[in-house]
Amino acid sequence: MEWADEVHRGVPGQTSRTAAIFRSEDPHERVWGVAYEISQDYWDRVLEEKVGYRERGGYNTDDVEFVQFDPNAQTVKDKIIVTLFLGDKASPNYKPGTIDELAKQIVRSVGASGTNLEYLYQTAESVRMILPPGETDKHLFELEAACKALEKKEAQGFTLKTGTVYLDEKYEQRRAMLIKVFKTVDKNMDRQMGLTEFQNLAKTKLNLNTSMESIKKKFDEIDVDKNGKLSTREFIEYFLSQLQDEEKKFKEEFSKFGIKNQNCNNFEHALLLYETMDGMKSNTASEMSLKELLEENKEIVQKMRIRTRPKAREVLEFFFPETIGDAMQLWFGKCSVNDENIKNRFSSLTKQALRGELDDWINSATDCLALVIVLTQFTRSIYRGTPQMFEGDSKALGVTMLAIFHGYTKALTPLQNIFLPCVTLSTQENKHCHELAVQIWVNYISPKLPAEDPLRIIQKNFKNNLDIMNKFGRFPHRNELLGRESTPEEAEFLSAIKAHSSTDVVFNEDGTVERSDEDGDKGLDNAISAMLVNKF
After folding, report:
1. Which candidate in 117, 151, 324, 536 could, as Cys together with 511 as Cys, close a disulfide (CB 3.0–4.6 Å)?
2. pLDDT in tens, 139-177
3. Residue 247: phi, psi to the nearest 5?
4. Which distant-in-sequence residues (6+ apart) come within 8 Å of 214 by Cβ?
5. Burial class (CB in 10 A: 0-12, 13-18, 19+), 522
6. What is the DSSP annotation of 500-511?
């Protein structure tokens, strides 16, 4: 950014700073860029005049070889010769300076094409889009950081708006996320996104719950030049401007019904969740052991720290312990020590959840997960042996339906999906809820687990519960607590369960069940079934 300009982003007396390429005697120095092939006819008729206007102001030209570095791009056998516009350090336009000196000039400069800040930020975005792994541009990125710091200092509470480009910190963070999301789709790095890619982004990457027709309508709205492709600039500028307008609109609409807007930041949450899950092993087809799932869950909770409420984070950190043995005992065992611990730590929070005072936790996937754990798991430990054990189940189902609609469940890991939505569904006295829990387990969670993983014990719970619903339409073991009379068939079932309930089921450190039952595998299997039935 050592080239002074008074045409595009500056004016006479207040020049701006633009990027320039200079000739180097060092053969190891490189310039990264994108090469465009155009016909001679198009150059003669259209581009020559426009490029001449854009690049006027002290530049020389030179033809050099362009060397491909993208392994995913189609290889070109012949040499690629490109024309470079080179700056001349003997020119009066060449005005080097320190990072701070350049930043001060850039923050204040504006010309016919817009602000110098906009030019700098877009240049930095473009360079990030094309740089291969391990490469950087130290000068450019340090200058970008200095400009952001200076801009923030000078803003003093107001937002500078130029066209649809918002330059305050909130929107710069959004801009950075939008660039990352765009790059996941732009595999050939041509900075163009077609309709199919946009649909894939919305449905499979961001898990947004909307129709293909709506996605096409949104695509056409973003496609300003109507060429059937979204450029990086169209994509980013559209969402930078729309997010603010949509937030205001949603808040106004929800206020008419006396409801707080629970999803005004849905797109932003989708972006954040995508960024968090990107690169995680559970986001691939690879099998994962319970140990790996626990380790990954800890990493995800840490990454989502900024967007998870402190109390919700406390719930998740407690409910997903570091060791397999502790996790299995907490999730599936009946332990008076765990019950007492939960009662001491989370009784007040559980009462708040039951009263609806934590309904604003439905704002994000991780908060939703924590809320259903409180409503379906902590209630059972705190109120064990009383009708209040089941008091949170109905509310948890409502929260789960909202989470599914907002796409939150798709953004969670297989381990987290066991509890949201599967366990929540399996607490309901509704056959179809259990059918859905089984389908999610079979299609999404089970394929990710090794054949002998201890977490597969929950599969027995889902099967047992579905069998019970198909036969009785309700949970007979809840009858006594809820004051319901058992049918003869239910009484027979309860007698069979009671016969095996006295057998202790102990989890080893590796999550497997300790085999202490004299009846062998069959007796152990019956004991596990009895344990799971009484647990849920």
Report:
1. 324
2. 888 888 888 888 777 655 444 343 333 334 455 566 767
3. -60, -45
4. none
5. exposed
6. HHTS---B-TTS
The residue count for the chain: 536
Rg (CA), the chain: 30
Residue 480: which H helix or E strand, with range? helix 479-482
pTM of the model: 0.55
Sequential DSSP letters for 231-299: EHHHHHHHHHHHHHHHHHHHHHHHHHTT---S-TTHHHHHHHHHHHHTT-GGGSS----HHHHHHHHHH
Burial of 39 (0-12, 13-18, 19+ CB in 10 A): exposed
For helices 431-440 and 457-472, angle between their N-to-C axes, nearest 10 degrees: 150
Task: Read off the pLDDT of residues 250-272 as tens digits, 9 standing for 90 and up.
Answer: 455 545 555 454 443 455 555 55
Give the angle 456-458-463 at the CA atoms, nearest 5°. Answer: 105
The CA distances from residue 58 to 9, 53, 88, 288, 461, in Å, are 16, 12, 7, 59, 75
At 387, list the tokens.
């009708």
Buried (b) or exposed (e) across 279-314, using 16+ Cβ within 10 A?
A: eeebeeeeebbbbbbbebbeebbebbeebbbebbbe
Q: Provide the pLDDT for residue 355.
A: 96
Q: What share of the chain is helix, strand, coil (3-state, %, to 5)?
A: 60, 5, 30
Query: How far is 317 from 101, CA to CA, in rounded Å?
Result: 47
> Which residues carry out catalysis?
55
* CA–centroid distance for 187 within its chain: 19
Q: Measured between alpha carbons, how far is 251 from 239 in angstroms, rounded to an integer?
A: 18
